[in-house]
Write a structure and sequence with these properties.
Four copies of one chain form a homotetramer. Chain A is mainly alpha-helical. The first copy, chain A, folds into two domains: about 10-70, Arc Repressor Mutant, subunit A; about 80-120. Helix content of chain A is about 60%, strand content about 5%. Chain A contains five helices and two strands. The first copy, chain A, has helices at about 10-20, 35-40, 45-60, 80-100, 105-120; strands at about 60-65, 70. The first copy, chain A, has a two-stranded antiparallel ribbon. In chain A, helix 1 crosses helix 3, helix 1 (about 10-20) crosses helix 4 (about 80-100) and helix 2 (about 35-40) crosses helix 3 (about 45-60). The first copy, chain A, is elongated. The interface of A and B includes residues 105 and 116 of A. Chain B binds a DNA duplex through helix 3.
Chain lengths: ~120, ~120, ~120, ~120
Amino acid sequence: MPFDLTRPIYLQIVDNICRRVARGELPPGARLPSLRDPALELEVNPNTVQHAYQELERRGLTFTRRGEGTFLSEDPQLVDRLRQELAGRAAERYLAEMGEAGFSPAEALAALQERVKIAERGV
Amino acid sequence: MPFDLTRPIYLQIVDNICRRVARGELPPGARLPSLRDPALELEVNPNTVQHAYQELERRGLTFTRRGEGTFLSEDPQLVDRLRQELAGRAAERYLAEMGEAGFSPAEALAALQERVKIAERGV
Amino acid sequence: MPFDLTRPIYLQIVDNICRRVARGELPPGARLPSLRDPALELEVNPNTVQHAYQELERRGLTFTRRGEGTFLSEDPQLVDRLRQELAGRAAERYLAEMGEAGFSPAEALAALQERVKIAERGV
Amino acid sequence: MPFDLTRPIYLQIVDNICRRVARGELPPGARLPSLRDPALELEVNPNTVQHAYQELERRGLTFTRRGEGTFLSEDPQLVDRLRQELAGRAAERYLAEMGEAGFSPAEALAALQERVKIAERGV
DNA sequence: GTGGTCTAGACCACC
DNA sequence: GTGGTCTAGACCACC
């Protein structure tokens, strides 16, 4: 996971975990790796990883069991909730960009439809 | 036009002009303001505006007449070409973001469809 | 490389590099000197050298690798293409000058032929 | 006749007259226009025209009859001599430019030959 | 160390 | 007044 320099690293770690949950790579209830592992792998300070984990907990995605570690919420709707959230933000952004280029939401939808259709043929 | 700090100012000026052309605010053949006007307004150096205008020319969107100014191409397909380009880039990005969250292109399309439908009702 | 005062310095740098490529002194793929070197040697601003290098890139003769340098295109036809271009421009100019003095292209050719023949004998 | 700003105007007038003689537009013995006419037409000072005429005389191309005007030499070889001179200078320059691009005189000749042949077909 | 961006500002060329 | 060239030099991004 390469970092971009324009956003706090801890938020990039948060986003990355959210995406992995949304993709189903991290199932509800799964234990997140210890603070040290990702810190070594990402070459960041363990405090930065802790900051990320605290943010996840603040959002209700994780909980900690003292002495055991940090776990993903066991809420069966967790994945769905995250997917909705990510999808919402991406769609918002797409419609905003298209709006700035003069496309109505309906036109933005049609443009995407066209594109997906073409890509399918290409495959 | 507020600048974001993460991208070159001259490219943000380029994008802004592209969007205005796509929206039909700047018709083909229109004269762009002189280098000095936007420089004063945006509080950037005239060289930065020139850099933006040269990039537009490099992309074939404008031409310059020494002593007269910088003009949008008179190509009647200019607007369409730009709209296609901007739409393409926005869609690409949307599909990429959605892909990272585990959505197939078809799902990404459906999610947008849903969202637009809801927004329409909301209006 | 002495500069003449009637043409932009950056274009004289461009021409000089083109001629060296045409002569085979700079092989395809070769790395051009950094912006700073020729600037010191030619006593011009690094920005002027950069302007020249950007013009070369615009013409498709070079490409840049951020942090590594500016390189001549690896297209094996680069040399030939440049030789054709330079020869074309020189011939155009010769025929134009001769035309102003009342020589038809055929006569201009004959005059050159004569001159080259004499020079060969002289050698 | 538009002037270029990089050479003395009087020499540009000299060259222009030489070319017209070489083209046969001004026959040997012809009277050149008075100082005032070209001065008005070219929007230069009559002194500049006089300077040009003096240069022509210095080169042996003209002579003046007091009270009558300036006349082209009546030497029947005048035209030929000028044509030779202009052709020589143009050829010299062509071979020099081609030499800088790595062409031998023989190659420069061949390149011109090719070009003239193509132009003839094109006509 | 490499090229890229940007400022500040002088001066030129064309109109 | 318009864009074009150039200097001088700061600071950034990528290696």
